[in-house]
Amino acid sequence: MLMSDVIYKRKSIRKYQPDFLDEKTLQDIQIFFAEIKPLYCDIKVDFVIVDKKSVKSISSIHSPHYIVVNSENKHGYLVNVGFMLQQVDLFLSSNSLGGCWFGMAQSKEKLSDDMEFVIAFAFGKPAESLHRELGDFKRKSLDKISDVVDKRLEVVRLAPSAMNMQNYYCVTEDNTIHMYCANAGLLTLKRLVKMREIDVGIALAHLYVANSEKFRFFETENPKEIKGYYYVGSAEI
After folding, report:
1. Strand pairing of 116-124 and 65-71?
2. For a Cys-Cys bond, which of 15, 102, 141, 176 suits 127, CB 3.0-4.6 Å?
3. pLDDT (tens digit, 9 = 90+) per residue, 165-184?
4. Residue 20 carries which DSSP code?
């Protein structure tokens, strides 16, 4: 199945078969890591496959494998990680494997001296249905996340986000989508504050996969001000 088709079927898998994946499958995933498109080419990012002993979490989700993502802490790094890791999510789902963002997890080991741990991602053979029907998505309507109802933004609407909050807003200008992130409230947990920009990156990944030949990411000067949101970047599609 094409990754662009998976956007309309993907779901977070929370039940996994305990079996470890074979070496060929893990090698194929590693090869895909090298093919991931970044938003910011100057930010160093590492994707490391580990087992459950290397990740700590209070979640009831247990999988045989996890991807631990480390990144340089530079401008745009959270959006960049969301953009890159969501490509992995769609790749796995298009190859009969399940995955789930592990926003509250932590890596037990420091894997890099010059980068920080950003997020973990559970994956493996699903022990539940891998995909869902379009009507099963629980998402906000397009008019709640964008200034116009544009069918091209349906892929953004379907993107996963922390607690399905969809803390982003799209402003459409011809073939350009300007992406904004919701301001965090005073009581927002520190971890969820970070997830907001990661979620923007996830949404941008869906725009990229659906428009891979045209997609171009950039930051514009003097972007339009949107109450309750701050500008992140723009995507030409």
Report:
1. antiparallel
2. 15
3. 999 999 999 999 999 999 98
4. P
